[in-house]
Amino acid sequence: MNVPVEETNLSELSSSSTLLQSAIWAAFKVEFGWEAHAFRPTAGPWSGETVLVLSRHLAPGVTLAYVPYGPAFPKTAATPLASALADLGASLAAALPVTPVCVRFDLLWEAGSLKAPQSNRGAPVRKAPGDVQPPATVLIDLSHSPDELLAAMHKKNRYNIRLAERKGVEVRVAGEGELDHWYDLYRETALRDRITIHPLQYYRRLFELAPDSTQLTLHLSLAEHDGDLPAGTIVAEFSDQATYLYGASSNNKRSLMPNYALQWTAILHAREAGLATYDFFGVPPADDPTHPMHGLYRFKTGFGGLLVHRAGSWDVVTQPMRYRAYRFAERVRSFYFHRVRKAGPAITAR
Description:
The protein is α+β, with helices and mostly antiparallel strands. The chain has two domains: 5-132 and 311-340, 3-Layer(aba) Sandwich (Aminopeptidase); 143-275, Gcn5-related N-acetyltransferase (GNAT) (Aminopeptidase), CATH 3.40.630.30. The protein has helices spanning 23-30, 81-95, 146-151, 155-166, 179-193, 200-209, 258-272, 294-301, 320-340; strands at residues 5-8, 35-41, 51-59, 62-68, 102-110, 125-127, 136-141, 170-174, 216-225, 228-238, 241-249, 277-279, 306-317. Strand 3 (51-59) and strand 4 form a beta hairpin. The chain starts with a strand and ends in a 10-residue tail after the last helix.
């Protein structure tokens, strides 16, 4: 049974505690081909919660609706979670100007909280073929002192932070005008790690829009050594959380461990700003040496913190025939990127 929803102004998203469900994120994605809508369920477990829904026309007759990091895990639900999510997805699909093949929810819920049906045939709720945002991450509790944070790290991370300091690596906050330098590093990173990145204007526009939000602060930081820029990061501070959005590094001077210096500086800055957590925003799910991003796992988990596994992306199917064709196309694309190109999982989809 569908739940009633009412469309509301995108400004109603201003109270969101999650960047990807915020009004500023909606404005940002609109500039890169998405339509943004805000809906408020008026009944059911999400009654009163405002939900950002992004939609995009992908091919003739194929429109995708996407709910990034929403809705919140319900405090109470009279029906099973899968049924409640199916009801919400159907209502959102019906309220959109064009009916999508599915409504894809990227859930921050704990992994295992939503169960896939034993048979997917005809099921309205299905696990998506792949996750849009990485479902596993590392969260650092910033209520601890710097000494306690260091003590919680792997000894190799502590050593590398001190090595960067001894070798003269300095971290400085850079202005938007230095995004070109950072992007040169990012392209080098993409070639080395075989990841897909956006054009420079995508990241520049995020910095241009950030001042429109009272909740969002972006930090571009660059590691510097003897006039060279071996690495750089973009970190977002939103609500009570700092999030490591993007990292870039040169093939040169990697032995100076500039990435460790950058992360430690960002963690300390977030703590001094009074934020609650530092989110590394994406990590392979386990310590698996065969994983193409195993080095990323060791790097991020080495800073301590809690390894969190989330439910990931789930589809509420609204047009079964077209959805099957779209799902097949997604699998073909995934096969190409993971088997042919042998690239790692998409960690820059946001």
